[in-house]
Amino acid sequence: MTTTLGAMPRRVTICEVGPRDGLQNEATPISTEDKIRFCDLLSEAGVPILEATSFVSPKHVPQMADAGEVFRRIRKDEGRTYLVLVPNERGLERAVEAGVRAIAVFTAASEAFAKANINMTIDESVSRFAGVVKRAKAGGMWVRAAISTAFGCPFQGEVPVAGVVRVCEKLLALGVDELSVADTIGVGTPNQVFDVVGALRDVVPLDRLGLHFHDTRGTALANTLAALACGVRIYDTSAGGLGGCPFAPGATGNCATEDLVYMLHGMGIETGIDLSKLRAASRFIATKLGRPHASRAYTALEAAEARTARLAAANA
């Protein structure tokens, strides 16, 4: 597959997943008020798509037990998409009750991962989502489908590109509006990005294809650069680099929104996101988690700002 830097898009859409994917596995309980504030700060920063919460079973994911209240109370700016994850029809019902207008469903490209994560085969999961997607579309909702382990699986290792394409075709046949194809455990490299995107571009238009990279092995930005060269314009990221797959040993989380925005803005690619306001959102949630973020750009920019403030105070 031949690519050139000149083929890169001039604007990118970022789906901010920090409030859901970033927080769902956190052991530290985050209050409803703090989740709402985190979401509102991200809206203030200008994220175009915000994955706000997840309507999963509170028994299995206690951190998301307040999904309905969180979604009802967050600010909802015109022109932004406020997305939630739903695992089944009961989750959809709860989302509808909360006023949700955009949902995400999820499966895997690896049979072994689907079995371990959701205790069913890929085909079984797609069948289960068929009713969810049908009801959501009938209600005028926007529907996204996430496909995990598209670049490698912690249980079966290599995941064939043909398997990724097959799952994507099944989800598109259900009528979903957009796909998010994920490197869930952060093993992907740019050559794989060229292979996966090269195969998928014959199946789904690039304006309906998103990519979700993890930075477990430090390749998230390299993989994004490869995807940009392929013309992909939609990326999932998490403020501060929050999140990570519990099945990935040593996982450092999702690609950090600050890292990607810093790189894109430096390349002259627009995002519509205010990096300073984005850092304010990350700074806020860091105080609630009680630890520093993994994001390199966030850490460096915060340190530089603190140094400038110290110098100004010393010279006052």
Overview of this protein structure:
It is a single chain. The protein has 316 residues and is of the alpha/beta class. The chain has one domain: Alpha-Beta Barrel (TIM Barrel), CATH 3.20.20. The chain has helices at residues 18-22, 32-45, 67-73, 89-97, 111-118, 122-138, 161-174, 190-200, 220-230, 257-266, 275-289, 296-315; strands at 13-16, 49-54, 81-85, 102-108, 142-148, 178-183, 209-213, 234-237. An 8-stranded parallel β-barrel has the order 1-2-3-4-5-6-7-8, surrounded by 7 helices. Helix 9 (220-230) links the parallel strand 7 and strand 8. The longest helix is centred in the last third of the chain and has 20 residues, at 296-315. The protein starts with 12 loop residues before the first strand and ends with a helix. The mean pLDDT is 94.
Overall average residue pLDDT: 94
Could you tell me the CATH topology label. Answer: TIM Barrel
Task: Compute the separation of the termini in Å.
Answer: 58 Å
Main beta sheet strand tally, sense and closure? 8 strands, parallel, barrel
> CATH H level: which superfamily?
Aldolase class I
State the CATH architecture.
Alpha-Beta Barrel
